[in-house]
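Dear colleague,

Thank you for sharing your sequence with our group. We've completed the structure prediction you requested, and as agreed, I am returning the results in plain text so they can be pasted directly into your records. Please verify that the sequence below matches your submission; if there's any discrepancy, let me know and we will rerun it promptly.
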Amino acid sequence: MRLFLVLLLVISFVQADAQIDPEAQHANDNTTLLIKTSRLFGKLVDPKTNKGVEAASVQLFAAKNDSMVAGMLTRPNGDFSFLNLPYADSFRLVVSAIGYEQIEKVIRPGIPATNAAAKFEKDLGNIVLVPAAKQLENVTVTANRPALEMGIDRKTFNVAKSLTATGGSAVDVMKNIPSVSVDIDGNVKLRNASPQIFVDGRPSILSLDQIPADNIEKVELITNPSAKYDAATSGGIINVVLKKNKRNGLNGIASVSAGTPGVANGNLNLNLRQGKINLFVIGAYNQGGGKNKGETKRENKSGGITQDYFNQLSVNERRRRFRSLRFGVDYFMDNRNTLSVIQDFGAGRFTNNETQNQEYLNSSRQLQYSGERFSEGRFAFNRNSTRLNFKHSFPEAGKELTADLTYNYGSRSDNSNILNNFMYPDGAVYKPSTRVRNSGNSHNNQFTFQADYVYPKGENTKFETGLRSYQNKFSSYYNAFSVGSAAETKLPLSNNYDYTENIHAIYATYSKKYGGFSYQLGLRAEYAKFTGTLVDSAFKFGYEYPANLKNTWNALFPSLFLTQKINDNDQVQLNFSRRVRRPDFWQLNPFIDISDPVNLRQGNPQLKPEFVNSFELNYNKTYASGNFLGVIYLHNNPADITQYSDTISAEQYAHLANAGVDPNAILNTFINGSVTNRWGAELTLQQKIGTNFDITPTANFQYRTVKAAVNGLDLSNNGFNWNGKLIVNYKIAAKKYPVFNNLSFQLSADYESPQVIPQGKTKSEFGSDFAMRKDFLKNNKATITFGINDIFNTQRWGNIYDTPSFYQDSYRRWSIRTFRISFSYKFGKADFSLLNRKDRGNDD
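Please find the predicted structure tokens below.
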């Protein structure tokens, strides 16, 4: 409530600022450039409807030297007005609007040169525009944005160009973006680091697989964020920008998809803009399924000698269903103030039925006994978001104030049943079966207030400042029971907890430009506190920084960007930023996850945040047929949050025996290491060959060193890794053969080499996707797309651990090869009106 009052005060301040602005006292003023005294005004009208023409360009030039005096876009009623004009014996008025012929007029105020100081006011009346329909009748205007727009500080990926993601989710979009990799669980990496995922520039409780690809307009990658952004972006930022059309009238797009295994998607995007109101609504349904396999092979050792072997093969049949509804309204209060409200509703239902076949062998690889594990899981969630946004643009170009409130809220439930059987090779019972029943639910509330102010001073100087307050409250109840013939026994696995996360920040950046050289200095200050409680035991865990004045440096995050423009096509930038990587809840929570009975997972409540120093040297070159971006980078991570694995202790096994856990199971947890350094070079080329063919290869080379130790065990490791990605696009242009005309093809392939981890290495990965799309009907309003994800069915994730106590080689996968066909149709009516039902024709 207090933050809501702050927002109201911000709006009141802006309105007060507007009231004392002398320019804002004129009701019809919308100029972008004003000089001294006097006024010219008029109105543009359509000859057929006799109504005003909105957003037409009106420019006024001094006839003597043809310099522009003022310019503006007409108001919704067609009005325009130029105030405080200088003296001139004549002016030239230029009017241009889409769909109309350009008009030029000479205006003479009638003030003699001997009285140049006199004021004048001239009403130009209604200026009737002439439609240009005949001239445009056989002209097709296309504006092709490239699939990837590379800048010196960010990359912007146009999702409409991602054919292979059509009908899929945001995870499928990420697979086609250079610098980004996706593991089998849908987790995204940016240059092998975990980025912060934003939706429309703000944190979201939605995961990427819950966002339909057809609802995404573009994706922005910021590899080394400045002080303006949240400090917890040590792995960079991936900002998913959702579609929101603001064209006049009613516009929309509808799409459906079907495929195998179990693929069925639908999406409807509608937008209506009329006068000062812009309304939009997006509804989507998405589902998929399939059987996924995993395999584990392990040797248990003592003193370097193998004691026994273990093999496991798992098959997981899953089905995932998502549905979402997003709607909102933009209210254009006047030319300088806009108020927006956006509401999101999302829900999902998942089922997972897994079978695990296990073999326990002695040191001679002879089967001693085997196991079967059957698990049946049901998971459901409801996640919603409400956002209120206010934007004020000042008369000075580029000067603006924005403020918004975001409230994310939701719940989820999780239920599963597990059965474990163990047999001798002859089929006799090795030990009694065990049954485990799990039941859980959780609630999550996130509240964010953010305000940003941009103040440019001339063309070469800019100051930005802002503040952000974020609170996240989470509560979860998870109970595990050992099911006997007569009763249930609650297991130590039961895990009921609450946590609260608070982050408050302020920032300021200053930018200056001298010719081709520019710099930006920034500083962000943050206070963060994480408090978690295990409800059953009252055990508390978490972190706070800065905890005292001695640790003030932990709250400061500077950034520096130096840019040199060599010429119109070449640019070099050196940048530095200090960021933080806060441990997430699962890394802190001491709860033990037994989803895999031989590979357990547990958090460490003693973890502390790690602070990251990032350096980048960028070179960007643009030329007629393409673009090249080369980057050399270094990420220095003191106290790096590092994964650590070891065989469970006898005490831990005693707590988990009733849950069917293997006595030699591996427990994966996290520690703060000494330091991790990553040196790398990334090369991205976007090359157009001819008019219809383009390729985008990307290569990332990295050398990593890890220094860490725990309980006297040295976990240090180092090694080289690389990954490459290739995206190829081709479009047929053959007007003589309509069947093939506007037929597009896209092929993408991604390879990641093995990568060192503290106690071993990850295994190499390879995946490839293919899609073809046909545009047809008038103005290409209809599109049909056929796609194959993971052509060779090779996309899987694995690792190798080699420690004194065990050697393990394993892999698993989450998604499998998918075939999908999608159809979409675009529609619109520019003169659609909710308030006027008169039939105006059959415009589509």
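Summary note from our side: The chain has a mean pLDDT of 84.

Kind regards,
the structure core
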